[in-house]
Amino acid sequence: MKKLALLLALILALFSFQAVLAEEPVTLTVLVRRNAAVNAPAAENTAWQYVAEQLNLNLEFTEIDSAAWNEKFNVMMAGGDLPDVITKTNITPVEVKKNMDAGVFVNLADYVEYLPNFMAIVEKDPALKDLVYFDDGSIGGFAQQANYATKETTIMPTNVFMIYQPWLDALNLEMPTTTEELYDVLVHFRDDDPNGNGQKDEIPMSLLYGQSGLKLLANFFALPIDSSVNYCDVDDEGNVYFLANTENYKEFLKYFNRLYTEGLLDNETFTQNQQQVLAKGTSEVPLIGTSAASGAALVVGSDRAWDMTTTPIIHSENTEPLWTRRVAGYVYTGIITSGCKNIEKACELLDYFYTEEGGRLAWMGIEGQDWDWNEDGTWDFLLKDGEESATLRARASLQPGGGLAAAFPEAWLMTSNKDEQWFNTFNGQMALSNPEAFVDRYPTVTYDDRTQKELDTIAADITSYVDASMAEFIVGTKDVEAEWDEYCKTLEAMRLKDMLDIMQKGLEG
Fold it and tell me: Which ranges of the chain have pLDDT less than 50?
């Protein structure tokens, strides 16, 4: 009897020992790209800690600073020292396909049974599906689902053009809808002392993103430059064409040269940084009349943000309204490598962020700890004394800095944070006001290595020349009318036709 009891005890002990072994967390090594300005160290981030606890994981992080990412990442890849997972970055389709074909990155199409949440979102969103899949049916990695401003539409403007409403009211001016109407409003802003301080200190237009902001406003002339590739777009017949040598582009240059010359466009447009624009926008006396950005708080601060109103889609007298929309997602923000010994568990980790709970965690932090619901059904961050929401999100969420592999949480649309409410309210109104005016971004195209190198070489010279010439034409060191033909001839000499031919063949597959 004693022997039987001892045997039973040994069996129970063995099962207990096996249970303990089964409960041991699985270790995954994770490489992340870190922007130190907006992200706490990954090992200290409470969102990563939370998901590790929920999925019984031990996450070991390697971080590369965003400024040094390309160099150090390439060295790591060349050395074959592969992490299990790569995230918080965007890897180009060319690099992903090359590494997947070489057996370095895992083809997720072989593991869709372990990705129920991610695949459900991909199948529901055709635009996202087009980004994720390669032509041969392989899936190179995960994607960040793009954010949007309203449940009624997934259209999301690439920033908006906004105007300081109190100045319109003070001068009894109508909201502009065309470029000429906008010009007239800007003249009144310059000349009629709308801030009421008796000084001529108003800046009728100051753009947060400098020359990039000007490229956005090329939309006024039906030129989707900010969403183009190498200044190229695709017409209705599927033909690739160059935007920066068209008559509309010439009119764009002439218009903003007029604004610059007449003191209607900030004379520091090509030199100032975002902090300098914000300093102007948050000065004691309002100085900025119009701007372009994703949110008003970036230009004029939170206290003055709600006085900035999104304009209708402004267009020239010769063009129809056009505005570019954000991409459906940011692709290849999560990669599993062939160095991973437990691919199923790595799939479970990244797939979690496409659940409702996981999406909120990635974007907002831990419910009840970093944010919570309000009685009216909205939510807000639970900030410590004196803490800004950006500080909380740096330590408690994963989205800041981009490169996130996660779904967009609809709860974000119900935030009570006033900055985000501005974003949702006005961007949503713009998206719903004229949905047919929004155009898609240039599609993602994959080239072979040799073709990509040739394209990159040609495009680098052309885009550099166009950027420099744009600035010179607008500030007046080059004359648009007198030097336009020479500008176009120079583009042709820089192999513009070859670039268009390459991009056309790539588009046609």
Answer: 13, 16-17, 19-21
Provide the pLDDT for residue 128.
86
What's the angle, vertex CA 363, arms to CA 357 and CA 368, rounded to 5? 60
Instruction: Look at strands 323-324 and 438-439 and give their pairing.
Output: parallel
Q: In the structure encoding, which two tokens stand for residue 324, read together?
A: 């570019």
Token digits of residue 279: 């300093």
H or E stretch including 86?
A: strand 85-87
Are 303 and 508 spatial neighbours (Cβ–Cβ below 8 Å)?
A: no
User: Within 10 Å of residue 68's Cβ, how many Cβ atoms?
Assistant: 11
Nearest to 44 by CA among 421, 323, 507, 395: 395
Per-residue pLDDT at 274: 85
Query: Which letter, b or e, does each residue of 178-202 get, where b requires 16 or more Cβ atoms within 10 Å of its Cβ?
Result: bbebbbebbebbbeebbbeeeeeeb
How far is the C-alpha of 368 from the C-alpha of 382, rounded, in Å?
8
Strands 379-381, 240-242: pairing is unpaired
Kind and range of the H or E run holding 34: strand 26-34
Residue 233 gets which letter from DSSP? E
Residue holding tokens 């034409």? 473
Model pLDDT, residue 408: 93
Report the pLDDT value the prediction gives residue 38, as an integer from 0 to 100: 85
Q: Residue 306 corresponds to which tokens in the numbers above? A: 């709600």
C-beta pairs of 420-424 under 8 Å, 24+ apart in sequence: 420/295, 422/295, 422/296, 422/297, 422/305, 422/306, 422/308, 423/149, 423/294, 423/295, 424/149, 424/150
Alpha carbons 409 and 373: distance in angstroms, whole number: 14
